[in-house]
């Protein structure tokens, strides 16, 4: 059976990492005899340049018909002066809504070969293996917005059903792991967080009595994620808190350039992308780290296409390349984007 994959390289370093990572996917597909087809579509700033909108109708149709979507990166300083509805980042919100992907899944695991590149003492990161599940389609990013001459407002809104479905994702994930969920909110201040805590407590008690639940305020979590990262298993939180905490968590690994993510809904294709941005300052220079994109391909194969053996082979190849020092400059190596990807492809 042919699996259809839409590729949206996007902006900045997006095209470089998409092309480089594609060679790893080609090697894996050949080894494991996967039948894959690809369609390249415009998205983000490059789509604004050509069509006037960051998420064109043709791209939306292609994504909805696909089995999985790969995304590189979006945005750049040249788009900062555009009207809000034309900004590349608006394409992300529109895509998530159109595809119904509401759960952003970001794994963070200790990679021993990178421990020396972190700011932590020896042994501090031992046992770190976290999955952050971030709600993706509600909260302040999607709320009503208004602006006057000397004031501005952003509405933060959540419904019971939005919270229930993301909490169930966390409960299901915890059952596959260590059986613990930490829910992060700001219930001492925010009404949306009060609702979040109430709904989370009820859903976990009624539907996941075998999973341990604890609650943590977001400011305390920002501290504990650094001071005691090995204490956590599955972390679930709302949109903005998750956005901030997952970037913080990337420092547990040593570089934001190595972490993948998956955005999933109940039906339709998932969207798989590295958590880093478009890095326009190094675009076109062959300096971009392709590992986050390659790891996102591994997540796509396992989570989106049901190919765990292929995904495991790519993950093992990534770890072996890092251990050997066959990496880009941000990880202390001397390889270009393409050469670093080729080093992983050979190991696959």
UniProtKB/TrEMBL annotation:
**Which UniProt keywords are given for this protein, alphabetically ordered?**
Amino-acid biosynthesis, Branched-chain amino acid biosynthesis, Cytoplasm, Leucine biosynthesis, Magnesium, Manganese, Metal-binding, NAD, Oxidoreductase
One biological process term from GO is: L-leucine biosynthetic process
Positions binding NAD(+) in this chain are 76-89, 277-289
Q: Which residues belong to any copy of the Isopropylmalate dehydrogenase-like domain? A: 4-344
Q: Which principal EC class is assigned to this enzyme? A: oxidoreductase
Q: Which residues bind substrate?
A: 96, 106, 134, 219
- According to its UniProt record, the EC number is 1.1.1.85
Mainly resides where?
A: cytoplasm
Where does this protein hold Mg(2+)? 219, 243, 247
The UniProt entry, under Gene3D superfamilies, shows: Isopropylmalate Dehydrogenase
An MF annotation (GO) of this entry = 3-isopropylmalate dehydrogenase activity
The cofactor note reads: Binds 1 Mg(2+) or Mn(2+) ion per subunit.
Q: In which pathway does it act?
A: Amino-acid biosynthesis; L-leucine biosynthesis; L-leucine from 3-methyl-2-oxobutanoate: step 3/4
Q: How does it assemble?
A: Homodimer.
Family per UniProt?
Answer: Belongs to the isocitrate and isopropylmalate dehydrogenases family. LeuB type 1 subfamily.
Q: What HAMAP family does the entry give? A: LeuB_type1
Tell me what this protein is called.
Answer: 3-isopropylmalate dehydrogenase
């Amino acid at each position: 059976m042919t699996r259809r994959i839409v590729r949206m390289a996007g902006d900045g370093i997006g095209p470089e990492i998409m092309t480089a990572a594609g060679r790893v996917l080609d090697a894996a597909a050949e080894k494991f005899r996967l039948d894959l087809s690809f369609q390249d579509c415009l998205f983000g700033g490059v789509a604004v340049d050509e069509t006037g909108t960051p998420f064109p109708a043709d791209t939306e149709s292609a994504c909805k018909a696909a089995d999985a979507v790969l995304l590189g990166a979006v945005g750049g300083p040249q788009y900062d002066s555009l009207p809000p509805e034309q900004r590349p980042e608006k394409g992300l919100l529109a895509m998530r809504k159109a595809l119904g992907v509401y759960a952003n899944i970001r794994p963070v695991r200790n990679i021993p070969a990178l421990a020396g590149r972190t700011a932590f003492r020896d042994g501090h990161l031992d046992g770190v293996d976290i999955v952050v599940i971030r709600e993706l389609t509600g909260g302040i990013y999607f709320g009503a917005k208004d602006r006057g001459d000397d004031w501005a407002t952003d509405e933060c809104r959540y419904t019971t059903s939005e919270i229930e479905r993301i909490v169930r994702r966390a409960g299901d994930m915890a059952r596959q792991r260590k059986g613990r969920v930490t829910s992060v909110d700001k219930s001492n201040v925010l009404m949306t967080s009060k609702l979040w805590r109430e709904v989370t407590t009820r859903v976990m008690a009624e539907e996941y009595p075998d999973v341990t639940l604890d609650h943590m305020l977001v400011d305390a979590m920002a501290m504990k994620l650094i001071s005691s990262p090995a204490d956590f298993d599955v972390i679930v939180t709302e949109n903005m808190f998750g956005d901030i905490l997952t970037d913080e968590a990337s420092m547990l690994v040593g570089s934001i350039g190595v972490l993948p993510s998956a955005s999933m809904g109940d039906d339709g294709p998932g969207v798989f992308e590295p958590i880093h941005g478009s890095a326009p300052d190094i675009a076109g220079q062959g300096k971009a780290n392709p590992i986050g994109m390659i790891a996102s391909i591994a997540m796509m194969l396992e989570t989106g296409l049901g190919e765990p053996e292929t995904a495991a082979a790519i993950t093992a190849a990534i770890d072996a390349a890092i251990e050997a020092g066959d990496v880009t400059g941000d990880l202390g190596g001397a390889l270009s984007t393409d050469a670093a990807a080729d080093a992983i492809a050979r190991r696959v």
